[in-house]
């Protein structure tokens, strides 16, 4: 089959609905119904400010626990890239914001014994905040307590990367809110420069279907 024939076949399959357009191009607009499905998820999540506060409290607990159990360890910071507006995949064309921390490193890393004390002490803190271990592949059970990777995730998209150093590397730590709506975006539209350029009249609940809120196709 020639490239032209293959391209025409792909377009036909997309138009007829036999395959998703993102199967051909992962960066393609997934369509209004899929964007609405994702937006409903975002709308149902807690407000961004609440998640930022929770992660701030957890950040303080993590730092205090490391300082307590590994007093010789010191934190350093590497600046990370931050989105001014919008969210990461799969919510790149949805209305929302996603905030990530800088990257933090701890040297010298806690010893295996100190690390076990740290993860043991933090386990109920994470559980109370609604997090579960996210340190293995989806089809595998979480790693045993004390494993170097004690990363966490939560159903609203919030994540914590917490990996102790091995083979001379430092402890690696960061966190991310996931995609959420700022509280004010539920009662008023985002500021004009934070709205889609081709859809300046967007408003909550930011849906193409009923009860509406979006009218132009996302770029």
From TrEMBL:
Q: Where is this region: Disordered?
A: 129-156, 185-219
Q: What Gene3D superfamilies does UniProt report for this protein, alphabetically? A: 3.30.2030.20
Location relative to the cell: Cell membrane
Which Pfam family, an example, fits this chain?
LppA
Organism's domain of life? Bacteria
Q: How does it sit in the membrane?
A: Lipid-anchor
Tell me what this protein is called: LppA family lipoprotein
